[in-house]
Amino acid sequence: MSKKQLSLLLVVFLTLGLMIGCSQNSADRSPSSDTHTVKLYFADADNERLVTEEREITLKSGEDKYAIVLQELIRGPENEKYRVNISPNTRIYGTIKQGTKLIADVNQDFSKFGGSMAEILGIGAFVNTLTQFNEIEAVKILVEGEELIGPSGNPRGFMGTFPLQAEDGKTATSPQKNTDTNNAAPKTAQKNVILYFANQDASAVVAESRTITVPAGISNTDYVKAIVNELIKGPRETKLKETIPKEAVLRSVQIKGTTAYVDFSEEMHTKHWRGAAGESMTINSIVNTLTELDYISQVQITVEGEPLNIEHVIMDKPKARNKDIIG
């Protein structure tokens, strides 16, 4: 073989080696992808409770997994009986993780809900879809960079996992996150509650959604106490009116079967503004608020251990939910 032929052969081998090397480097630079199974939260057919649907998503290295999961949520359920309650025009601008908290920024279309229940379930689905990840305990939603505002006119702030209601009517237990540490501060949870206050002319009670902070694993009895104490604080919405005298003190709560027994101090009588309309607002405010809980079907109200007797009605037996008076 001549020197010229040998040189030509070496050039060919070198060229092939460079081509193979470039091909391998290109493959190494290609982003890797993984398939994950996630839970998406939707509303049931009656738009009364949250339900879950599993879905597989593909994530590439470096992608914002929280934004991608939210995009799947907005795309809607595969089960035709489920509802999404979030506008399909919602865009996810991005997410920011701060320790165990996550901030998600969305466009204005996110705020277009079809009613108060749709709003609660839509926001609950959004938050729960994110807090399913062990590293996320609370979520704050920004709309065009501004904090999402609740019906009270105040920012919703960071929200924890919304409680689920199972098909049997009981509250399902949310999975516990593996975040326990020795000597850690007592854990708390944020709960979204619906409180009923009087409208301007005391002809109806109107729902006001509020997020409250309670101890994690709170008992049903203590949770009822927390809700009634929120009622005593009065409404945040200026168009609504209080239904319980601020001087009244909640003395005790008992739950027997599906009946809640709530006992107030004498100020429920002595500081009440009276009148048939005012009396009706007080009773229906308390009863309708507590029967929002899936384990309460009726409420008995007493004052210092005796039946509530403001002026016109002696409440000597438990009262069930009054849907007709809800405005």
Supply the number of structural domains.
2
Q: What is the approximate shape?
A: elongated
Mean pLDDT: 83
Based on CA atoms alone, the radius of gyration comes out at 28 Å
Unreliable stretches, pLDDT < 50, 5 or more residues?
9-14, 26-30, 166-185
User: Helix content range of the residues, please?
Assistant: 25-40%
Class from helix and strand fractions: alpha+beta
In what range is the share of β-strand residues?
25-35%
- SS summary, helix count: 6
Strands, count:
16
Give the CA-CA distance, first to last residue: 99 Å
Main sheet characteristics: 6 strands, mixed
User: How would you spell out the order of helices and strands?
Assistant: HEEHEEHEEEEEEHEEHHEEEE
Structural description of this entry:
Helix content is 27%, strand content 29%. Residues 9-14, 26-30 and 166-185 have low confidence and may be disordered. The protein folds into 2 domains: 33-162, no CATH class; 188-327, no CATH class. It is an alpha+beta fold and 327 residues long. The longest helix is centred in the N-terminal third of the chain and has 27 residues, at 3-29. The radius of gyration is 28 Å and the shape is elongated. It contains 6 helices and 16 strands. The strands form 5 sheets. Strands 11, 12, 13, 14, 15 and 16 form a 6-stranded mixed β-sheet that branches. Strands 3-4-5-6 form a 4-stranded mixed β-sheet. The termini are far apart.
Topology record:
Layout: H1 3-29, E1 33-43, E2 50-60, H2 65-75, E3 92-98, E4 101-106, H3 116-131, E5 138-143, E6 146-147, E7 164-165, E8 171-172, E9 188-198, E10 205-215, H4 220-233, E11 250-256, E12 259-264, H5 267-270, H6 276-290, E13 298-303, E14 306-309, E15 314-315, E16 319-320
Parallel strand pairs: 4-5, 12-13
Antiparallel strand pairs: 1-2, 3-4, 5-6, 7-8, 9-10, 11-12, 13-14, 13-16, 14-15
Helix pairs in contact: 2-3, 4-6
